[in-house]
Amino acid sequence: MPCDGAFATPEDFTKQWFFDFEPALETDLQPLLAKSAGRIHAAMAAQGMCDCALASWAEDYLIELNCVAAAVMFNLPCVRITEEQRTQFWEYLNGQLDLIRTGEIELCSGETGKEAPAFGVAQYGLTPITEAEIIRNNILKDL
Questions:
Q1: What is the number of domains present in the chain?
Q2: Could you read off the pLDDT tens digit of each residue along the chain, which spans 143 residues?
Q3: Per DSSP, what are the bridge partners of residue 54?
Q4: What is the DSSP string of 53-92?
Q5: pTM of the entire structure?
Q6: Dihedral over alpha carbons 7, 96, 61, 22 (to 10 degrees)
Q7: By residue range, what is the domain housing residue 113?
Q8: Alpha carbons 114 and 108: distance in angstroms, whole number
């Protein structure tokens, strides 16, 4: 998925915020969704996720983030939230973008985030031959 354009449609936005827009408002909403998606694209680009196939769940997640971003970035009168709620949504959005930016959430299909467990085994040199092999492998690893 290239890093451009909105993830959400005006219809997605209305479903997210449970509000029926007048058709004229929907045409005004599309540019705001595209603009608010920029922060999401920047977070994805920081981890090289712009050109990958998204995981099956990632599209819904990005649509939801795009709707939240549009609601908090632009003071839309149709979204009836208090200033306290707007602040909470803003903190939520920034937290999610940080998780994407740092690789803790991996949006690409077949990938794992940096918090996924890794497993390694210590090598033991019980004979002079295996000790030499371990030393050789360590030298080759550093090259």
A1: 1
A2: 568 899 999 889 888 887 666 656 666 788 899 999 999 999 999 998 988 889 999 999 999 999 999 999 887 777 888 889 999 999 999 999 999 999 889 999 876 555 555 555 677 777 888 888 888 888 887 76
A3: 108
A4: PBPTTHHHHHHHHHHHHHHHHS--TTS---HHHHHHHHHH
A5: 0.73
A6: -50
A7: 1-143
A8: 13
